[in-house]
Design a protein that fits this description.
The protein has 2 domains: 2-113, no CATH class; 151-336, no CATH class. By secondary structure, the chain is α+β, with helices and mostly antiparallel strands. Helices cover 33% and strands 20% of the residues. The relative contact order is 0.14.
């Protein structure tokens, strides 16, 4: 069967098809006109990708649903069904138990991730409960290492002087002047409160990749004066950041698919908790698991910080630096909040 680039959402697969295609025409799968390629050209990828699933009659979800939910691979469920039911994929790429189940019950077969992936990712939920309610300071690091967590936070990148970062502080009552640049750094240890990444008394530097996100992160009120500081990495310095925002394609990971999928799913699970805002009536105990994982990442992987999605502004991105050496506040501006828009959902 000849498929085309319009069959997929995954940009890496689309680019592969467009680069390998030698003809254009109507697709045998989606009926769209596009760059055509024999499905067999993707066999190696599908063998690796589908190996992360197992048949599971107790699962709440079907194979097509999980593929769409977690990986946004195909352009439609109909395309997904046609490709998985194609003889070359069905016989050579699908795990045997899943293929057998499809024969008996159709493509809507119930699956879950294989045990190796499930155990590693689900341990985050267990760890959160342990840290909050059972033991906080003698957590079993050995189990995390056995699950391979020491190698699952390698999705990182470097930032240098070309990257501008921002931090905001609400001015105190009656303060009409902006804070000085030196005052925009982390507070001293005796004034450091607990945050989603740092425990009380251990200062981390909370930054955002754009000024507007910092205004949301302060939870400012109408007519508040806010100082926004502009930060720059010092010349000759590079900082290594673990990225919790990057949803990579599975396509370029046929050689390490299981480890890659495990890492992606684990980082997504942790990212939800990193981005979860603390409400006024929530306990700071909710921050303990993310504080712990930041410390684990800091000392096990030897990176300088993490990047995660802002919970308070859509499309906003935050960066937390574990150490503020190597970065300097180069400029400050005084802002005033002139508009706040509140939205709501009906719960009952």
């Amino acid at each position: 069967m000849k498929i085309c680039d319009k069959c997929f959402q995954d940009q890496e697969i689309i680019s592969f098809i467009q680069a390998r295609s030698t003809e254009e025409g109507s697709c045998e799968c989606c009926a769209e006109k596009g760059h055509l390629l024999e499905l067999s050209e993707l066999l190696e990828y599908f063998i690796a990708f589908l190996s992360v699933f197992k048949y599971d009659e107790k699962s709440e979800h079907e194979l097509i649903y999980i593929i769409e939910r977690d990986w946004e691979l195909f352009s439609s469920n109909d395309v997904c069904e046609k490709i998985l039911n194609n003889q070359i994929i069905f016989e050579l790429a699908l795990p045997e138990e899943i293929a057998e189940s499809i024969i008996h019950s159709g493509i809507n077969v119930k699956v879950s991730y294989i045990d190796q992936i499930e155990e590693s990712v689900s341990y985050w939920s267990k760890l959160k409960e342990d840290l909050k309610w059972r033991r906080r300071y003698l957590t079993d690091i050995d189990e995390m290492i056995e699950l391979g967590w020491d190698s699952l936070f390698n999705d990182s990148y470097l930032i240098d002087g070309s990257t501008m970062l921002y931090r905001a502080r609400i001015n105190g009552d009656g303060q009409t002047d902006s804070y000085k640049p030196i005052e925009m750094l982390s507070p001293p240890v005796d004034k450091t409160t607990a945050g989603r990444a740092n425990p009380q008394g251990i200062p981390y530097l909370y930054l955002s990749t754009d000024p507007k996100t910092t205004l949301y992160e302060t939870r400012a009120s109408y007519l508040d004066n806010i100082t926004v500081g502009e930060f720059q990495i010092q010349e000759g310095t590079q900082l290594k950041i673990v990225d919790f925002t990057n949803n990579q394609s599975t396509f370029n990971h046929t050689d390490n698919m299981i480890q890659f999928v495990t890492g992606q799913l684990l980082r997504r699970a942790i990212s939800v908790d990193l981005s979860k805002p603390l409400r006024r009536y929530d306990s700071e105990l909710e921050y303990i698991p993310t504080q712990f994982i930041c410390e684990f990442i800091r000392y096990i992987t030897k990176v300088d910080g993490i990047q995660f999605n802002s919970s308070l502004r859509k499309d906003g991105t935050n960066i937390v630096l574990f150490n503020q050496e190597g970065i300097v506040c180069t400029n400050v501006e005084l802002h005033q909040i002139t508009n706040i828009e509140i939205g709501s959902d009906i719960l009952s």
